[in-house]
Amino acid sequence: MNRIFLVFLLFLTLGASAEATAVNVQKAGAMATFPPDTATLQLKFTNLKSVNSIVHIALYRDGVNFLGSEPFHAVKVKTQSVAEIETTVHLPAGEYSIAVFQDLNANGHLDKNFIGYPKEPFGFSRNFVPRMSKPSWADTSFRLDSMHQLEIELIR
To answer: Can you spell out the DSSP letters for 76-128?
Structure first.
């Protein structure tokens, strides 16, 4: 658990780069190891507004607290005038869903208009596009076993 936390902290400190890259945490000359049920999720987010901002990524597991205030895992990635970013996370194998938004004004939350529609770029796993309501778990969930790559195009 401490190793995963260290890797997460290293991702947060990579603010000068729009692309968060995997970091090998070494202890006594050995590569970091993860529990056997740990899976690697490579994420790519496209269609970002080209401004300096923070992309908030929330990962929900097994439908618990889906789209609630406390996701299973959260990541923030700084952008620097780019239209896409990539990051990698290591998680226990399982069923997941992703909700993401680009915080253009750095206020820490997704701004919405008077009818509740987001004013900032946002997206979901499986590139689900909501029509009249929030997505359901079935609309956005995917299985993460060992290695998975996802590309999510943000909606502007």
So the answer is: EEEESS-S-EEEEEEEESEEEEEEEEEETT-SSS--B-TTS-BSS-EEEGGG-
Residue 43 near residue 87, CB atoms below 8 Å:
yes
CB 91 within 8 A of CB 147: no
pLDDT of residue 10 exceeding 50, the answer is no
Helix, strand and coil in the chain, % to nearest 5: 10, 40, 50
| DSSP letter (8 states) at residue 66 | T
Distance in angstroms (rounded) separating the CA atoms of residues 118 and 156: 9
Q: Say which range, 97-101, 117-121, 131-135, 149-153, has the weakest mean pLDDT.
A: 131-135
pLDDT beyond 60 at 14: no
Fold topology of 2-153: Immunoglobulin-like (2.60.40)
| Domain boundaries defined on the chain | 2-153
User: To the nearest whole number, what is the mean pLDDT of the chain?
Assistant: 81
Q: What is the pLDDT of residue 11?
A: 35
The answer to which of 30-39, 71-80, 95-104 has the lowest mean pLDDT is: 30-39
Cα 107 from chain centroid (whole Å): 18
